[in-house]
Amino acid sequence: MRPTLILFALLLLPPVASVDAQAQLLSFDPAPGVYRNAQDVFISGGDAGAVYYTTDGSRPDPRSRQYDGRPVKVTATTVLRAAVFDGFIQSGPEHGGTYLIDEPASELLTVSVGIDPWRLFNPVSGWFMPGPDPGTSEWDPTGANWWTRKEFPGQVDLIESDGTTVHSGVLGFRMFGGLSRTFPQKSFSLSGRKAYGNKKIDYPLFGPEGNRDFRFLVVRNGGSDWGRSYIRDALLTGLLRDESWDLDLQDARPVRVYLNGKYWGLYHLREKINPRFLADRHDVDKDSLSLLEHELTVKHGSSREYERLRDFIINSDLTLPENYERLGELMDIDNFQRLQIAQTYFDNRDAGGNIRYWRPDGPGERFRWILYDVDQGFGLHREEGWKINTLEFYTEAHGPQWPNPPWSTLFQRQLLTNPRYRRGFVNRTLDYLHTDFSAEAVSERTEAAIASVAVEMPRQLERWNQRPDYWQYHIDKLRQFARLRPDYLREHFRQFFRGGDDRSVDLAAGRGGYIILNENLHVASDGLTGAYFANVPITLEAVPEPGYHFVGWEGIDDAAPRLELDLQRDQAYRIRAVFTPATHALAGEVIINEVCPRSKLAGDWLELHNRGTVAADLTGWYLTDNSDRRFTLPAGTLQPGAYLVICREESNFRVIYPEVPDFISGLPFGLNKEDERIGLFSQDGSYVNAIAYQLPPQRDSSFSYALALPGLDNSKHRNWVVEAGRGTPGFANPAHLQSAVITRQNFWARIGVGIAVLLVVGVVRSLHLRPRPS
Fold first, then answer.
1. For residue 206, what are the contacts with CB-CB under 8 A and spacing of at least 6?
2. In sequence order, what are the residues at sequence separation of 6 or more whose Cβ sits closer than 8 angstroms to the Cβ of residue 304?
3. Which distant-in-sequence residues (6+ apart) come within 8 Å of 315 by Cβ?
4. pLDDT digit string (tens) for 582-638?
5. Interior/surface letters 115-140, b for 16+ CB within 10 angstroms, e for the rest
6. Measured between alpha carbons, how far is 404 from 696 in angstroms, rounded to an integer?
7. Where are the domains of the chain?
């Protein structure tokens, strides 16, 4: 974003006097929310000035209505905004909210925006209007008003379907999109800024597994799919959620929008692609990366490294392995390949030039591609789009300026000259035709996407004067594409790459491991059955889980854990990977002795202890957590009786624990303070030790979870004690823990003695009371 535009937006904010902020806080009674009937709203607060309010979405100022103590009559859906003024100076933060009055129930999140009506609808300057000089072309950026790049603050409320308001406050509003700006129902974006009083939206908008704080969001009208199915872009993006794709995707959910109290229709809420979007996913500095779009348009950073990459591809013979390896140092080839697989399956006609790609700054970094804007896929403009041979489209060397100019197909054309890339492109496509892109899987996702908006569609269609039968026509096209595309695409690949006949491959892994197929899919015990081409070998790699070793293969005569399987022989291939449990000789000797999952100052840490009599070579040993993340220990030896601490950040840990002699930093994952499983394994994957805990919430801000006595079985929860405070990393656990265990053991011993006495008394009493023979 240009600094001048941000400055312009901030200058539009009214000046705020420096007064007692608490005295100027306003509140509404009843609070904004969902109501069946009209409401009388009282405004309280603002004792040090006059309160002005609006009900048309506009920002309040001294020209607005002044609150006189009588209730504000809210008879229809309304955005109420109020602020305190001392003369012409705003003397406190604005307060606002949305009252949804007698609105139809909806399963969707409601996005309500209140913004000055003139900003959007003024015939001369309104952003939703063509303006006095719309230009001769829809793409003329200096023409219609909707091409503006300005930002204006507005009240934004997010209300879940159960009526809960999950965000309320002022955010920046600006226009968004390409050609879709010309549609009457326009897309826009929302920006959190400190100057507006809301730096971010703190709520998991896209579910518990996604992010929970957002500074930038897009409210999208469906893009090129507007007036058709409305769900293409979100549907296609959602097909690639499996972690094997390794693509950066925008989360999405359907929402209904109200603009200044008026129903504005169905949209999709999306994350916005910008440096912060990438920083949230890749642990990189948002200010130290380059983000580009189209051919060489710089959104952030520089195009220098991309030009270097492009020149290498143009000037290098990629059939040579050494050049291909060098290219892999400049770009993430697997990431690019999977993007091409998805776009080819989608038949996305806008994927040539409409692309996003990025690279962190610094030596050794690589370019990655972002899946973006796929709403022209799935036959948007074609009657039978599933039949299209998209391979020809993406390998066209002399395409038109749009949609597939020569520069947009350059990378794919050059990479396909390399046998390794070509084989991966073919086999991974077939992998996904058996899984994520199978007719069954895509049909199921399609029906779910349709169901997510079906209740809202009659109102949406009525709002924008559209025909239900035309929407249904495009929905049916999505269903047909999902059902028919796999068979056509398979034949396109067979012909284009001369794949030969199909070979049936049936894979499964025994307990204790999995198979990596084509350096792509993970195949476990549930197995995978699919058809691959006789002329394209597949790759298999057997991977044991921690605590297991690979034994061998059933169905093929090869003992190597990684192999290339030729499919020329005309037969069905049934293959199983076999694994066996493996325990290290020092299992139970080297143990996890203490865990600190909540140390705000030092960061999370854990402690290993060698309670045996033999030194342990820790080289290549690794730790795992609940999410199967790994941390490999560096070369080193743990002597008998010694302790070793593994922490997250060296600087923080050293400040809090300067007395700890031996520790390793760099633990890449935190430790859950309530529910965690930590495993320790040797370099070859043999089991050494593991603990699991489930703790109730702790009142203390810092605590450690410690084994009470070094000789106890650390797999038993009863042998551990929760201790408030900083813990004892690098040293024996404190003596009072040992006394606690002894006390606990004595307690149970006394209980046992008591029970025994009661039993003896009971037996004696029963004998005494037994009737005597007469």
1. 251, 252, 253, 271
2. none
3. none
4. 999 999 999 999 999 877 788 899 999 999 999 999 999 999 999 889 999 999 999
5. bbeebbeeeeebbbbebeebeeeeee
6. 58
7. 3-220, 289-497, 502-581, 590-733, 738-774
Beta-carbon contacts of 314 under 8 Å, excluding residues fewer than 6 positions away, are 410, 414
Rounded to 10 deg, the angle between the 468-497 and 439-454 helix axes is 160
Nearest to 104 by CA among 226, 220, 256, 253: 256
Nearest to 235 by CA among 247, 249, 248, 245: 249
CA distance 758 to 752: 10
pLDDT digits (tens, 9 = 90+) for 363-413: 999 999 999 999 999 999 999 999 999 999 999 999 988 889 999 999 999
Q: In terms of CATH, what superfamily is 590-733?
A: Lamin Tail domain (2.60.40.1260)
- Region for 301 from its dihedrals, namely left if φ exceeds 0, alpha if ψ lies in -120 to 50, beta otherwise: left
Task: Give the span between the Cα atoms of 234 and 655, in whole angstroms.
Answer: 47
CA distance 447 to 462: 23
Tell me the β-bridge partners of 269: 219, 253
Least confident of 12-16, 32-36, 188-192, 577-581: 12-16
Q: Which position has the token pair 């879940």?
A: 160
Compute CA 196 distance to the chain's CA centroid, rounded to the nearest angstrom.
27
If one counts every other C-beta atom within 10 angstroms of the C-beta of residue 370, the result is 21
196 DSSP 8-state letter: G
DSSP, collapsed to helix, strand or coil, labels residue 225 as helix
Query: How far apart (Å, rounded) are the C-alpha atoms in residues 405 and 19?
Result: 60
CA 408 vs CA 120, 400, 404, 673: distances in Å: 36, 10, 6, 49
Are 532 and 567 within 8 A, CB to CB? yes
Helix (H, G, I), strand (E, B) or coil at 422: helix
Residue 595 phi/psi, 5-degree rounding, is -135, 135
- Positive/negative CA dihedral, 458, 463, 468, 473: negative
Instruction: For tokens 């998991």, name the residue.
Output: 204
Beta bridge partners of residue 65, listed in sequence order? 53
Q: What are phi and psi of 145, to 5 degrees?
A: -60, -30
